[in-house]
Design a protein that fits this description.
By secondary structure, the chain is of the alpha/beta class. The protein contains 16 helices and 13 strands. The chain has two domains: 140 residues, P-loop containing nucleotide triphosphate hydrolases (Rossmann fold, 3-Layer(aba) Sandwich); 298 residues, no CATH class. The chain has an eight-stranded mixed β-sheet with strand order 7-6-8-9-10-11-13-12, with helices on both faces. The protein starts with 5 loop residues before the first helix and ends in a 15-residue tail after the last strand. The model has no long low-confidence stretch (mean pLDDT 91).
């Protein structure tokens, strides 16, 4: 059974007086149903009931006919449907994939303050569809679930001690005796990614090919979702954008998303909407450009605002779509013997860091120097901490960590320290300008969450 960090937050919500319903949102296949159901059964036992809108939509939807503010009537019908007597003090009602029934989704607002403990899961709640007629519910506590991060992956692999040790060293920066073993497991994580079914398949079978069958199915599911005519976006454009993302990250120069690489003569007016849909559905991550060096960081807004990078929300899917041979990747002794170019290694490393930051809901930007500085290059990520300090983060796919743009930034900014993520072990040094340099392994990127500004 795979533990997820979000389950602690669900337990905290469930332990409080049932004042507001909970809505757990996120991309399809990230494990929302499993986590909510697991906590619900743990908290309420036989008083747990689940409505699955995917398997019996027509019948279950009828339970929400009539006034949506009549929550006691809704609960009475749910109890009759499940043949159980539901009590306000003990019941845990789960509405799975609630977005499929608009009246059920809208009813959540009326459960607020009712005393009934109601938790819902939903996919694609961040996108507009032609079907939606009722307003999105207010008065709801919301959590966003992402693919598993590397720490959760280690839990699933039975390496909980390693997960604890890595987190401890991300603070102390002491060298890690099991560094080589952690790197090997991280490369496996880059192959498999954080989709629970993919990871579970590998754990149960030990067969990467079987796991990749699951990745292919997820890729096809996402493609079918984005090309559904009910979404109101161009399915053809969405499919082309989806296919182009891995290639966009392979450039040796800027990895800025370019519409012209999606299709000849590609234009923002046609291609931005599919990108926004994918971001809203949680299957891609958008990292905007900033040229600031002081807090608060804001997106660069010149021209048409087309300054951003796009990553896949799951690095395993990125690895799959790059068609890299996983066996050769895992058998490589070190980065110098990887069977792929440095550009491919860089794209996979950068995508895995973006996934790690998203798992902590961090607000990140990428950075280029203003034209007035007369320089070129870019920094992979900037984070802002809760002390209004800007922290540059440079990602290196190997052990070569020379970063000219990082040096340029440090000369201009007042950052208290800089972070370089690479295959090197934990250590601490100073830059030429006397700023503290924290070297952190790529596998510890998911530990960089405490004290940084969260995304809205």
């Amino acid at each position: 059974m795979m533990d997820r960090r979000i389950e602690a937050a669900i337990r905290t919500w469930a332990a409080q007086p049932a004042n507001r319903p909970l809505l757990v949102r996120g991309a399809r296949r990230v494990g929302k149903t499993h986590s909510v159901e697991r906590v619900g059964r743990e908290v309420s036992g036989n008083a747990f009931v689940k409505l699955d809108f995917q398997t019996d939509l027509e019948l279950v939807s009828q339970l929400f006919e009539g006034p949506t503010d009549d929550v006691d009537g809704i609960v009475s019908r749910i109890g009759a449907y499940k043949r159980v007597r539901l009590e306000r003090e003990s019941a845990f009602i789960m509405l799975d994939e609630v977005q499929l029934c608009e009246r059920a989704l809208n009813s959540l607002r009326f459960f607020s303050g009712s005393g009934w403990r109601v938790a819902a899961t939903g996919s694609q709640l961040g996108v507009d569809t032609r079907r939606r007629r009722l307003p999105f519910p207010s008065g709801v506590e919301q959590l966003t679930m992402h693919p598993m991060d590397f720490g959760e992956f280690l839990w699933a692999m039975g390496e909980g001690t390693m997960a604890d040790d890595i987190r401890a060293r991300s603070h102390s920066l002491e060298w890690y005796p099991a560094h080589r073993e952690a790197l090997a497991l991280f490369r496996l994580f880059q192959v498999l990614g954080g989709m629970p079914l993919v990871v579970r398949t590998y754990i149960e079978t030990g067969d990467i090919d079987e796991a990749r069958v699951q990745q292919r199915e997820i890729d096809m599911t996402y493609t079918a979702d984005m090309t559904d005519p009910e979404n109101g976006i161009s399915g053809t454009a969405a499919r082309k954008v989806w296919r182009s993302i891995p290639g966009q990250l392979l450039r040796a120069s800027t990895k800025k998303f370019k519409y012209s690489e999606v299709e000849r003569g590609g234009r923002r007016s046609r291609l931005l909407e599919p990108i926004e849909w994918m971001a809203g559905a949680g299957i891609v991550l958008v990292n905007e450009l900033t040229q600031g060096v002081e807090a608060p960081l804001v997106p660069h807004s010149e021209d048409d605002g087309s300054f951003f990078k796009v990553y896949l929300a799951d690095t395993g899917l990125m690895f799959y779509k790059l068609h890299v041979n996983p066996v050769q990747w895992l058998e490589a002794v070190d980065s110098a013997t990887f069977p792929v170019s440095s550009d491919v290694r860089g794209a996979i490393a950068e995508n895995s860091v973006a996934q790690a930051f998203a798992a902590n809901d961090l607000q990140a930007y990428y950075w280029t120097p203003p034209a007035s500085w007369g320089g070129r290059g870019e920094l992979d990520f900037l984070l802002q901490d809760d002390q209004m300090q800007v922290i540059p983060v440079e990602v290196k796919s190997a052990r070569n960590v020379r970063a000219r743009t990082l040096a340029t930034f440090v000369k201009r900014a007042q950052s208290p320290y800089v972070i370089v993520l690479s295959e090197n072990d934990f250590s601490k040094d100073v830059t030429e300008g006397g700023v503290e340099l924290r070297r952190i392994p790529l596998y510890a990127a998911h530990c960089l969450g405490e004290g940084f500004v969260k995304a809205e």
